[in-house]
Amino acid sequence: MGERIVGRLIILLGILFLSSCVLAEVHVISNSENWRDVYSSMLFASLNGDSGDFLASTQHGPVLLNGIPKNNDIVLLNSNDKPFVFNYGSMIEARDYASVEERSYDDFNLELVDELDVNNFIIVDGSYGYSAMAVTPYAVLTDAWVFFADRVNIAEVEAILARKDVNSIVVYGYVDREVNDALVAYNPKVINSGDRFQDNVLIVEEYKKLSDAKQVLLSNGEFIERELMMGAHPILFTGRENVPDGIADYLQRSDIEVGVLIGNELINAATNIRRSAGISVMVKFAQGARSQTAGVSAVEGLDLFYLPTPSLNLEINSVKYNRAAKQVEVTYHSTANVPIYVKGTLTLLGDDGTKKVGDLDSVFIAPSDFKTLIYPDVELTGNDLKAEVYALFGEVKSSLDRELRGSYDMGVINVLDDCEVEITGVKYNKQKNMFIVGIDNVGDVGCYVDVELNDVVVNRVKQTIGGEGSVFVKGGKSGKIELTQRMDDADLIDNPYVNLVAYYGEREESLVGVFRGKFELDVDMFSGTTYLIVVCLILLLLLLIVLWRKKQDNEW
């Protein structure tokens, strides 16, 4: 009997030993404050078939280790410049892991690739974290490394590619023209519609050509999370609050059946997806607590590493009813640090009932600028007027993923605006890297003027260019507005004409007049100051020649 028990114990111990051997794996940990390093280390782990984690703060160091099995072999990737925890390797070794290997890098993205046997590559701009997140599943599926390339480091990326037996390259999203030019020899596949949500759909379609996935991960592309980096399912961007039309349309026509929302910040958008696309949506919002507490362990939030994202904020500055002009004037104020587009619907409440007005198309607003939208031919009675505003806004004209809602008292004014302005022309100054718009105030009153250029082709993508605010032009005087935008010779060839929209008015925050026109683009090589300097140098040279000749004559 005793021998039988001993035999069973030996068998049980053997099973446990074999299980521990099978379960042991390489676990990669990123110790860097730089999101590009974190992304590269997690992609490195996925391409190697290893598990991966990252530090999200200094305090996260010991907590992270509580969730990693002790029989794992740890590969610690340290940043030479900005590690979250110094001497983190010693902390890991003190936890008695199977093995700990430390490596240190200056630039994870450019150095880790040399430790991989990859021949496929995806190029994104390092300024757009959402581009990197969108291509991650496709990168893992096709065994491709994702490079962050721009005009500064493209030579280094080229040098790495020259050492590789390159099979394919995908250029995703916006990249500098220098990057596109450097990669022409590789005949890359380019995915860049100018709309990050449409690009997202296109890369998901590329994924599904190789793997008929019925499940997608839902995110906004603004953070790194472990499951998002594994590549098991394609990633679709939900938008922050509203589901962009392109995403909703794709889900309706695709065979996607299930969406897994990562994080609980996007629940409103996920709810909209379930309603509009009819797919099942699950939410992954937490994980088991790794720090032991008294009683039952609570759950804790997901490990998220947030990416740099533009600040998109929009507010209502005022809503007014201009009784003299019979029009509603809504003034938006963008506190965003990037250009945005807005499209609103207003429900107007007066003594004579309810009326609705709205925008047929999205309207551009420059960073930190005001934009007044006019809704003419509106008859409202009474003085206690209200407006319920529902506006969608976002970075891309066709994909408005954020919402602005509110109820506002409408001030009643009686103002007739007498501004009259004319646009005299548009030119581009190559030395200053800016468009210069000439303005004539042909009326008697001073006017504020703001302009935007629509559908300007920059690096093969159409975009809207706006200024930082309006300029004041006195009655009967001329002025100019300068719009900074870097354009190379190829861009200037692509834009022989520009479409201009000017907004003007007597009140700076209520530019109620609108002018639209198409202008031939003149190109100046130098600024007026440069021309003046050249003229002065020529005159100085002529003076020196005259003096020299007089001296020669005197010597004779």
Distance between the termini: 134 Å
Biggest sheet record: 8 strands, mixed
So what's the overall shape? Answer: globular
- The class by helix and strand makeup works out as alpha/beta
Low-pLDDT ranges: 1-22
The number of helical elements comes to 13
CATH topology of the domain at 421-525: Immunoglobulin-like
What share of residues are in beta strands?
Answer: 35-45%
**Average pLDDT for all residues:** 89
The appropriate CATH architecture of the domain at 421-525 is Sandwich
Helix content: 25-40%
The CATH top-level class label of the domain at 421-525: Mainly Beta
Count the strands?
32
Radius of gyration based on Cα positions = 31 Å
Explain the layout of strands and helices:
Elements: H1 2-23, E1 26-31, H2 35-48, E2 51-54, H3 60-65, E3 73-79, H4 88-93, E4 99-105, H5 108-111, E5 120-124, H6 129-141, E6 144-148, H7 154-163, E7 168-172, H8 177-182, E8 189-191, H9 196-210, E9 215-219, E10 223-224, E11 235-237, H10 245-253, E12 258-262, H11 267-277, E13 280-284, E14 286-288, E15 299-301, E16 305-306, E17 314-322, E18 327-334, E19 340-350, E20 353-358, E21 363-365, E22 370-376, E23 385-394, E24 402-413, E25 421-429, E26 434-441, E27 447-458, E28 461-466, E29 471-473, E30 478-484, H12 489-494, E31 497-505, E32 513-524, H13 528-555
Parallel strand pairs: 1-2, 1-3, 3-4, 5-6, 5-7, 7-8, 9-11, 9-12, 12-13, 17-24, 25-32
Antiparallel strand pairs: 10-16, 14-15, 17-18, 18-22, 19-20, 19-21, 19-23, 23-24, 25-26, 26-30, 27-28, 27-29, 27-31, 31-32
